[in-house]
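Let us practice reading a record.
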Amino acid sequence: MARETPLLIFDIDGTLVDSSRITIRTVREAVSRFAHLRLPSDREILGTFGLSEADMWRRLMPEGTLQERLGGSALYDELIVQRLHEAKVLLPHAAEVLEELRSRGYRMTTASNCDAPYLNAVLDSQDIRRFFHNPLCLGLVGGTVKADILQVHLSGKPVPQAYMIGDRASDMEAAAAHGIPAVGCDFGFGGAEELRGASRIIYALPELLEIFPDLG
């Protein structure tokens, strides 16, 4: 029987990419279409990174109706996809680290709390889809928390070992829910307090190469 290789499950925002600059601009443009609503601050927008799409828009438009939030979300999705294709948002060394991990024999995938248009735009615009097998996000699995994405990744064919790699508490919680180790990225949006459940902490992506040796 062929030996299954370990699975590395990557968060997206704050772990592999930093789209904060264009996200702030795009959120403000989407919310500004509703003149009676207050524009969120930079800090409020950044605080929504890692949240589900529904929770994100509840925070960004707390006085808005459900229809207004859905409208803001739809406009945001349309604009952010276009702008991602015009920007370079990969974190330093991300592509090189992913390439090296693949060459060392690891399987890799994604688990992001975003919707499908955003995930697909990141993977395609930054040319990193080629590294991932069955990349998923909350929108694609119809879930409510990140653990729902891991449930899809880890069900069915046995995986001898899997690791969650991310920068937010939701990544640590998802790993804990499935009893797998988490690598906390202390260079993203969460900060050290959110990474307390991590098995390992890294401060730059190349440090992953010290944790995951060549499987050959």
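A brief commentary: The mean pLDDT is 94.
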